[in-house]
Amino acid sequence: MKSHRKEVWFDVPNRRELINITPVVEEELEKSGIKEGLCLVNSMHITSSVFINDDEPGLHKDFEEWLEKLAPEKPYSRYRHNTAEDNGDAHLKRTVMGREVVVAVTGGKLDFGPWEQIFYGEFDGKRRKRVLIKIIGE
After folding, report:
1. Hey, which CATH number is domain 2-137, 2.60.120.460, 3.30.450.20, 3.60.21.10, 2.40.50.140?
2. Phi and psi (nearest 5°) for 66?
3. Is the dihedral of CA 70, 46, 101, 133 positive or negative?
């Protein structure tokens, strides 16, 4: 069995952002030479997420509004976590959106359903962040 590991860094200028990272993952899959196996993509930060969904701007806005209702950024004082930082909301948003995805690799391609794409969800940005891509198989 072969394996391929890559850490991909992103400059995230905004506090919250959704980034379609499917092309980056597909590029790493091609580099790996793996035709059959599994591809793990996970966030390396506790205030960000990796998830699969549709790349549709209206849906992205719906995520933003829904998450903000669940865990509003402000007032910062509402979170006991916010003693040295102001990102208590980001930790909760990450928990809801998840840490990672695993996608089957079939015939050297990500084995997606219709419309599926991989996203990096940032909830406490304004600095460099990274994602781990780990591909195993034959």
Report:
1. 2.60.120.460
2. -65, -45
3. positive
Q: Rounded to two decimals, what is the model's pTM?
A: 0.95
How far apart are the two ends of the chain, measured CA to CA in Å?
A: 5
Instruction: Give me the chain's average pLDDT, please.
Output: 96
Radius of gyration of the chain (CA): 16
Whether residue 75 has a cis bond before it, omega within 30° of 0: yes
Tokens of 84: 């040295």
Kindly report, residue by residue over 68-109, the tens digit of the pLDDT. 999 999 998 888 998 888 999 999 999 999 999 999 999 999
Distance CA 48, CA 24 (A): 17
Candidates 75, 89, 96, 79; CA nearest to 16 is 89
For the chain, give every domain's residue range: 2-137
Question: Residue 33 has which token pair?
Answer: 């030479």
